[in-house]
Amino acid sequence: DTEVTQTPKHLVMGMTNKKSLKCEQHMGHRAMYWYKQKAKKPPELMFVYSYEKLSINESVPSRFSPECPNSSLLNLHLHALQPEDSALYLCASSQELAVSGNEKLFFGSGTQLSVL
Amino acid sequence: AQTVTQSQPEMSVQEAETVTLSCTYDTSESNYYLFWYKQPPSRQMILVIRQEAYKQQNATENRFSVNFQKAAKSFSLKISDSQLGDTAMYFCAFAHPTGKLIFGQGTTLQVKP
Q1: How far is A37 from chain B, CA to nearest CA, in Å?
Q2: Closest residue in chain B to residue A107, using alpha carbons only
Q3: CA B32 to CA B26: how far, in whole Å?
Q4: B44/A45 Cβ within 8 A
Q5: Fewest beta carbons within 10 Å, which of A90, B25, B26, B70?
Q6: In the 8-state DSSP scheme, what is residue A84?
Q7: What's the rounded mean pLDDT across residues B47-72?
Q8: Which residues contact B55 (CB under 8 A, 6 or more apart)?
Q9: Beta bridge mates, A43
Q10: Which of A40, A58, A110 is closest, CB to CB, to B43?
Q11: Buried b (16+ CB within 10 A) or exposed e, B15-38
Q12: Closest to B71 (Cα-Cα) out of B6, B27, B19, B37
């Protein structure tokens, strides 16, 4: 199994809603990542977890709250989002933290989020 | 600061022909990794090829090969015998020592039948 599974594939939410994105992998990877991607733009790193501990937070607004309950699961909790937060949210994993690029990242297909 | 530049926003190629996508980067690191990722309409980012700067030999993966010029900080991707399934957005990326991938702006490649 070399898949990173993200659910849901599409999500529409209002600015007052609370929702969560889920990412799962069963490859035994110990590093997991959240990226945000606007249309026709490159992905931008949001968070990195290594061994279930937050390793990198790229100064992401607090309305995005990551959680890594175990080594196979990564969540992104959303609250009071703005329309400009509408984007594709990609999850990725690697065997270990990809320091200097020595690890291969496996990406999921993303959750397309629309904030109304 | 590390930067990655892709100067070709869009390209097209006829099926079975060869196309080269350009990428330049800037870094003060001596050893690092460079990548080409492909993002088809399915939206999943797929690693196409990886090059370690320490290795002089250019990486190849089947129909995909790179021309890595370390002194010029250039890392181009050559796709031979282009196929319709190669239609995608291609991102050049540099691996920051923290583990963060720094992407270029992308090149949209259309393979025409």
Answers
A1: 10
A2: B45
A3: 11
A4: no
A5: B26
A6: G
A7: 93
A8: none
A9: none
A10: A110
A11: eeeebebbbbbebeeeebbbbbbb
A12: B27
